[in-house]
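Sequence in, structure out. First:
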Amino acid sequence: MTKDKAKIALITGSSRGLGKNTALALAKKGVSVIVTYRSNEAEAKTVVSAIEELGSKAIALQLDTANTKTFDEFVTNVKQSLQDTWQAEQFDFLVNNAGMGVYAPFAETTEDEFDHLFNTHVKGVFFLTQKLLPLLKDGGRIVNLSTGLARFTSPGYAAYASAKGAIEVLTRYLAKELGQRQIAVNAIAPGAIETDFGGGVVRDKPEINSFIASQTALGRVGVPDDIGGAIVALLSEENRWVNGQRIEVSGGQSL
């Protein structure tokens, strides 16, 4: 990824957190970004401005990944934006990042909580990716966000981790079925990260932060730059032969 071969990435949920970090990390490599946000347009516009300050182009589009009925309109908006902003018909990278966590013990998880998690993390990813396929270049890349919790366990995340487990299986199937178009598909699985995810519990509660650090081989909790940088590296031309993989980025948590 060099400035003389500018590429375009679409990153869902990139107005904050890991999505924002990934967007800025890609922009530093000269990649243009389609930022999506669910409700906070002001946050998204701030990210767009930051990307532009780095010398890359960006736009912000509203998207609720839990509501598949909005996807046709969103895809139409993406197609128009590609033409208007980049005079392009397709984009290069899709990063399915948007999501949220629900902390609830298995015995207390409600059907509404379960449905919201699976609509956002599984159904939304499945059908949004499907509808965006005509706009994704042959030879492009897809990165799906999973979680370390799909490998190790922490009580209270049964539904969330199960949804991400489904994404890891979907990643392998996408890699197999899209291989004929030379599209590589992988999953990045972060460990515990200091963000506002889950109400900022890892970032803001010293006792939880310290415990996780003690369970991590590299001796600390992850920060957003650890994940954004890993996604950028995975999307680089040097990693073009990595395909159908679950790559955990956790510093060696719970080994």
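Second:
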Amino acid sequence: MIIKISNLRDGVHNYVFDEPIKEIGIEDFFLGNVLAEIELNKSNNQIVLNATLKLNAHFDCDRCNINCTTNITTSYQMVYLFGKEPVESDSINVIYLPLDADKIKLDDDVKDFALLSIPMKKLCKDDCKGLCLKCGKNLNEGNCSCDKSEIDDRWLPLVDLKNKINTN
């Protein structure tokens, strides 16, 4: 994904890219294409890029371990400044371009922000019930016949604490 910026007039410019995931190198987590909607606002000495990415992710659910596919939408903003990079720069969303730069390559940024959009807890659905801790049955498919009244000995101190709080 490359945007030519040479001879680009000041103002807002919109771009849409629909690229295969394989070209970006994130096929381990995503499938199909990445749709990138780009709004580029160019002024005299800077370019502000606002991007919205739409992807299809595939993963195993963290609760029930089934393979599932979900749609992910994420947005990010990058600022491109023309000139030399200062010695101390701590902003990761600011990139310095040489004065004679003629294009902006988006592949690395799209890859980075797509990977950051993967949820910490991957669920097949928000109300996933997970697996039974005793027999391993997927509780989304129905209840199991395990005895739920038996309490693990490790939780007894907390049960005692709960009972003390409830009696006060």
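Remark: The first strand starts at residue 2 and ends at 4.
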